[in-house]
Amino acid sequence: MNAFFTIFRTETKLAIRDGNMLFFGVLFPVGVMLLIGFVSSAEATRLSFAGVGAIGICAAGLIGLPLTFAGYRHAGILKRFRTTPASPAVLLLAVALLQTLFAFASAGAIFLIARFIFSVEISGPPLRFILTFLFVQISIFGIGFLISALVPNTKTANLVCTVLYFPMLFLSGATVPAEIMPGFLRFFTEVFPLTQGIMLLKGAVTGTDLAGDLVRVIVLAVIAVVSYVMAFATFRWE
Amino acid sequence: MIVMEENMNTVLNVTGLTKSYGNLLAVDRLELCVPDGEIFGLLGHNGAGKSTTMECILGTSKPDAGEVRILGLDPKKERRKVFARVGVQFQETKYQDKLLVWEACETAASLYPRTQDCNELLERFHLTDKKKAVVNELSGGERQKLSVVLAMIPKPEILFLDEFTTGLDPQARRGIWKYLKELKATGVTIILTSHYMDEVEFLCDRIAIMKQGRITAAGTPSELVAKHKTKNLEDVFLKYMEKETSEEVVA
Predict the structure, then answer these.
(1) pLDDT single digits (tens) B50-79
(2) CB contact under 8 A, A75 and B95
(3) Fewest CB within a 10 Å sphere: which of A60, A87, B36, B129?
(4) Domain residue spans in chain A?
(5) What is the ipTM of this complex?
(6) Which positions ≥6 away from B22 have C-beta within 8 Å?
């Protein structure tokens, strides 16, 4: 336990010193929320809240996790852990927890802005929103773990993360609402897992019937199961 | 102390260790036995199989065949037990970006059940004023000293050092030599690789010279020097390397 806490504390300090996650995971979505809030109608702001709140999940799961894991494996840090009495899984768990907290912090900040600056109301029960958020996060993190397991080095990790992250950020309804996406981009919007997650979150905000979103729940659940199973099966320590 | 059944004082035992990468036979049926309290040197030119041997012994690489026992235990099956008592320094250790020296020490210390005071170690290796420096911004020599410090943190009974003085200035090298001799006096077993024959001659009780994955010569440095009627160990080493070159020419 001592090892876990010490490593978690160190990883937190390193991530803050590095600043990438603070920018992409927290400051950037906060800026987007403020921008949308100031230029859009109250209803549009309310509909955007769920998508912007999910940017943190996307940044943590598709940039933070895979880049850290791939980097540590590439640098032989995971290998070095194997010649100690501790398991390298301790390091991976600490990083996963830290990235989870980044996603929470990001969504928390977005919620406070939406609620208190733009008076956004969540119509559905708050617990439904929280559980949906956790579900989406688990699913997107699964994709992040799978990338970590499959990429051979940091360079490829960088490429894969960029290719996945930016289109998902702009086309899945996180920044630009999916509803106003032109037809030829709609196809991409529909296939991104994050879109399903954002739609679920939107449903939790507006309090629509969950039964209508059952397909999205199933899609995300399948993605989660497949990615975790494949990630565990293919993960290498070096 | 744990008493081992058969070889009371053997702390490292390697039998029939074989490892190949594709068609390249990196380690070929290697046998190694290191008794308690010895400083043992594994020598050979780059690519002779030293690092592969080290990796297979430590379990970070999976051998194709053979058995390894560290302190009488299988390092793969009883990793935790074994590595609570073993210190390891890898060649060219890399660290997290922006990690500070004291954070590296603190993290390393958190992994072990019993540890040595990091401050004392940093003081001993003249790194105290670098405590708050970023590891990746240290000079090559300082980083090398840090990797030895980190290997010392678990108060190891066996210490593995892979090319531990590469990039160090002569004074720092002597400093580490002196420290290792002191460790040996307290009963620590040291297994090292090095390209510096003066170092090997000064430190090692016994050495083995590796060539193409096999041990071609083994003994105490003075035995080998006497056997080959050379001035020092460097000449012995060069003789073995020359042999190889001439063999290659014939082939």
Answers:
(1) 989 999 999 988 999 999 999 999 998 999
(2) yes
(3) B129
(4) 2-234
(5) 0.88
(6) none
